Amino acid sequence: MSGYKLKSKSSAKKRFKFSASGKIKHKKANLRHILTKRNSNSKRKLRKTGCIADVDMPSIKRMLPYG
Q1: Which residues contact 42 (CB under 8 A, 6 or more apart)?
Q2: Is the dihedral of CA 57, 62, 48, 29 positive or negative?
Q3: Which end of the chain has fewer CB atoms at under 10 Å, N or C?
Q4: What is the per-residue pLDDT for 3?
Q5: What is the pLDDT of residue 44?
């Protein structure tokens, strides 16, 4: 009998993408509502994607085994 397939976490599939170099990208938080108190510079910075810290990489790679 061949090996089992691992399931990916659906929540992680929606939130994370792998870059070409193998890093994990994510969208930054705090850009959904109550944006009147933020200035435009900070809102512009939140539009960019961020990278996951090295400490969190193993747990996210476990959630996305074929990522």
Answers
A1: none
A2: negative
A3: N
A4: 87
A5: 97
The pTM score is 0.82
Is the separation of the CB atoms in 50 and 26 below 8 Å? yes
Task: Tell me the average confidence (pLDDT) per consecutive run of 10 residues in the chain, 67 residues long.
Answer: 89 96 96 96 97 96 93
Distance CA 43, CA 57 (A): 26
Distance separating alpha carbons of residues 5 and 62, to the nearest angstrom: 13
Tell me which fold the domain 10-63 belongs to: Factor Xa Inhibitor (4.10.410)
36, 7 contact by CB (below 8 A): no
